[in-house]
Amino acid sequence: MxxxxxxxxxxxxxxxxxxxxxxxxxxxxxxAAFKAPTNDHLRQFEFIVVRGRENITRLxxxxxxxxxxxxxxxxxxxxxxxxxxxxxxxxxxxPKQQRMLMQSxxxxxxxxxxxxxxxxxxxxxxxxxYFASAWAAVENILLAATAEGLACxxxxxxxxxxxxxxHIVNAPDGYEFTCFLAIGYAAENAHICKQKDIEVKxxxxxxxx
Length: 209
Hints:
The protein is α+β, with helices and mostly antiparallel strands.
């Protein structure tokens, strides 16, 4: 698979089979994170790999309650503010938030060093450089996983989820939790959401918008 085929095939998959990702393949995929650009060149990323239903359940316990609260009002409210493709993705994703993290049986917790400023109270845009670098690393992981024939789904933590995770795994001060990242093999009947068709030339502006 060449690079552009990997880009084309990279999709969020929320339905996993029971085939297990080996430690060898996982290490290869996670190594891609350290090839991403970082603002300080130090690549201060750390990964916690969680396997086993009991361990994953303990980590994601706030996800269940938070998702339930959103489901009660979210889907109904979304019908009026989202276009049909966006709504279809939202409607597929929301009920699977807990299940997808459990089903892969390989939950990766990426951490990054956030220096100088609290992440949610940045002094200016440049103080988010560490956060931007962390997501560049996550994207490398997603692409590497695709190249290895794997599927991925991630959940950006909300409300009490980051602090819960950091407490459970005993993360040191100064490190932030990027996302819940499920890595596994797609189920045979895995749902793949329709992507928006984009005319690239219409999105490229020369000199001015």
